[in-house]
Design brief:
five-stranded mixed beta sheet; 207 residues; 14% strand; Nucleotidyltransferase, domain 5; alpha/beta
Length: 207
């Protein structure tokens, strides 16, 4: 389970404001990518917190409520939209969303713990922590905030574009989603630079 050992080691060096950073939605064919930055207090505990991918949706929602409802936790979720993803590529767009999330904390951040590899030219000192959402409490909290926030947004998009089932697969390339793409063509929140959306060569004003 995630713990606070990385945060404790950084605080021992005098780096007190430590933001865990993670993203959700790099792989889907549709929708934005979300990133979250979370600063938790020293010795903070949140029972059941883990990598969001390992958690049931109801558990993620419960953890989201506990994290967002704790006045001692500072957090921000930011996005890179489909147009930005298609323009600069998904990796760079993800890094931009991460930077926006940290900036959105609106406070001095001394160090970041980022899930995965280090981010080139990131505006804050940071460590890349591979599989960090299963190691660091701060990153695990960020993974939950990013995932739940994006899932909620995709459920809203399902109301606007009911043919695609976004509330069920969140934009990922499931058989159901691929079949809807073949039948209806892409809509405005599909990523034009992603296969198989690009293969369809259909107008993107869609249904």
């Amino acid at each position: 389970m995630p713990n606070l050992l990385l945060e404790k080691a950084l605080r021992a060096r005098g780096l007190m404001m430590i933001a865990g950073v993670d993203e959700a939605g790099r792989g889907p064919l549709a929708g934005p990518v979300a990133a979250a930055a979370v600063i938790v207090p020293e010795r903070w505990r949140c029972k059941g917190l883990d990598d969001s991918k390992k958690l049931a949706p109801a558990t993620r929602e419960s953890l989201y409520q506990r994290i967002s409802g704790d006045a001692k936790v500072k957090w921000c979720v930011a996005y890179a939209d489909v147009e930005e993803i298609d323009r600069i590529n998904i990796l760079r767009a993800t890094h931009q969303a991460m930077a926006r999330a940290v900036r959105g904390l609106a406070m001095e951040v001394h160090h970041c713990l980022i899930d995965g590899l280090r981010v080139p030219e990131f505006p804050w000192a940071h460590d890349g922590v591979v599989r960090g959402d299963g190691i660091s409490v701060s990153i695990a909290a960020a993974s939950v905030m990013a995932k739940v926030s994006r899932d909620r947004l995709m459920c809203e998009m399902a109301q606007e574009f009911p043919h695609y089932g976004f509330d069920r697969h969140m934009g990922y390339g499931t058989p159901q989603h691929l079949e809807a793409l073949r039948y209806h063509g892409p809509c405005r929140i599909h990523r034009r630079s992603f296969q198989p959306v690009a293969q369809l060569a259909l107008p993107l004003d869609g249904v």
